Amino acid sequence: MADLIRGQQVNEAMEILRFASKRASVFVDKVLRSAVANADEQEANVDRLYVLDAHVDAGPTFRRWRPKDRGRAHPIDKGTSHIVVTVEEIGAGGVGEASSAPEAVRG
């Protein structure tokens, strides 16, 4: 999902995520909206924002155990992710200064 929105205008990226049929699109959209809100707080023009970078890294793994027959236990690894979306404002002569720090949310 991060590959679909990288380099897109923020409004286009939100539309892509809204109509995507993947479960991860909800989490990436949430992080994108948070990054746009952070940029708005830093007085950036929201209409001129684009997605500079979007990537998903592996987070910590939660180890759980599932009871099995004859008193045994099998491990269950529950993986998590770090979603990072960076937005930047387009200046008059190209790309302007960064308008928000990377916003990470585990999903």
What does this protein look like?
- This protein has 107 residues and is an alpha+beta fold.
- 30% of the residues lie in helices and 44% in strands.
- The chain is built from three helices and four strands; from the N terminus they run H-H-H-E-E-E-E.
- The protein has helices at residues 2-5, 10-19, 24-41, and strands spanning 49-67, 73-91, 94-98, 103-106.
- Helix 2 (10-19) packs antiparallel against helix 3 (24-41).
- The longest helix is centred in the N-terminal third of the chain and has 18 residues, at 24-41.
- Residues 92-107 have low confidence and may be disordered.
Summarize the structure.
With 107 residues, this protein is an alpha+beta fold.
- Note the overall shape: elongated
What share of the residues does DSSP label as strand, in percent? 35-45%
Number of domains: 1
Mind telling me the CATH class? Answer: Alpha Beta
Specify the oligomeric state: single chain
- The total count of helices amounts to 3
Q: What's the name of the CATH homologous superfamily?
A: Ribosomal protein L22/L17
Here the CATH topology equals Ribosomal Protein L22, Chain A
End-to-end C-alpha gap: 13 Å
Protein structure class: alpha+beta
Gross CATH architecture: Alpha-Beta Complex
Mean pLDDT score = 86
**SS elements, strand count:** 4
The description of the largest β-sheet is: 4 strands, antiparallel
Spatial extent as radius of gyration: 18 Å
Encode the helix/strand succession as letters. Answer: HHHEEEE
Q: Runs with pLDDT <50, length 5+?
A: 92-107
Please estimate the helix content: 25-40%
